[in-house]
Amino acid sequence: MHRTAPDPPARARAPRASRALHRTRATLSAPFTPRALAALLHAVLAPVVALPGAVLMAAGLLAGTVLSWTALGPWLLALTLRGALALGDIQRATARALLGETVEPPGRRRAPGLLGWRRAVLGDPASRRALAAALLAPLTALPPLLAAVLGYVYGPLALAHPVLRRWNNVTVRAPDGSVRHVGLMLDGVEFDSWPRWTAVVAAGAALLLLAPWLVRRAGAPHRLLLRALLGPSAADARIRALEESRAHAVEDAAATLRRIERDLHDGTQARLVGLGMQLTLIRELITRDAAPDRLLATVDRARDNATQAVADLRHLVRGIHPPALDAGLATALATLAADAPLPVALDTRIDPRPTPALESIAYFCAAELLANAVKHSAATRAAIEVRGDGRTLLLAVRDDGRGGAVIGAGSGLTGLLGCVRTVDGTLTCDSPPGGPTVVTVQLPYPATPGPGPGTGIGPGTGDRG
Predict the structure, then answer these.
(1) pLDDT digits (tens, 9 = 90+) for 259-291
(2) In 10 A of CB 216, how many CB atoms?
């Protein structure tokens, strides 16, 4: 029996229908995904924690203030502030477990002894910020609960109105003495009969489908409160970033020195030792009037060793400071793109020229990101874009690889982040599964006195990933 193959439009319609079915299922199941249910649970638990906590903190603060002229007052205030810190720990843990919202704990002052403990708690800005969070939390924790009730309670009730109206109704007595059972009436309009109840069903379906969005939007102020008052202050975050940057700079400098020492010892030094031995042998051959062919072979080996030693030194120098950077970042990146193993599109607009330190950091970030694209993402093309406007040096590296890159877990991006932080820079990575991957580096831009090159360079050949 002969069968004809389906025409191309028919084959094309099948994937489209499958994608439409998948989107429909995802939309209908959105209110009941684990993430949505976790947010619903947080919306219910947050007021349960916040309301009693606020009452206890207010009572402790009031009692401590009233008794502040006695010896008991400062202790009550210290215990209240310590309770606020403990309440903040609970709120941070709940947000992290149910919302995936990670709020780093603030640094706390510590001192030995009971009096030292009291003095540290009373003088710690983190405890005062935690007290403010405890007192304000009920105001921000109630809106998500109201949104959850609206979407997850009133939504299903409205959706099931045609069935529930038989039991969920009120008795209305007309002026003439007649009695009617009304399930829903708004502004004198009843919604119990066809087709009016379809509006109630549609509103219920919309509320239920929009419930995750409503809970998330209503919870935004509460999440902002947790980050602002229960996380590190701006000064603490700055100090922590500086400490991490300093530690990274020290470790990176030590690793660089070890690498240079290893390369010199295992490569260049060994070749120079071999060169010296071969020159000694040549001298002995000359004094013995050895055969010319043997003498020439020894000279050739010595020349090869000298050539390789020079090549090793050049490679070592490029790893410390690429000579192409002397001509500017645009020229150095053009050289990098031309030597890359895949096509790289390069676009640079830099004016004025950054400091040598920023140029070096931007260059090595681009080199590392291209290498990552080749080794890990199976990219076939890449692009480098650099913008310098005198305030910020922006480097963006994009590849068409498989995506899935994240900062952390021992990846090379963690090292780059530590490197850019040494100059108060930032690094962000947008890499959804399936790609593309876009890594953006922003560096503060102190300009050198003279104007720098501002060139635009087209596609390079060879690239990295």
Answers:
(1) 666 766 666 666 676 767 777 777 676 776 666
(2) 17
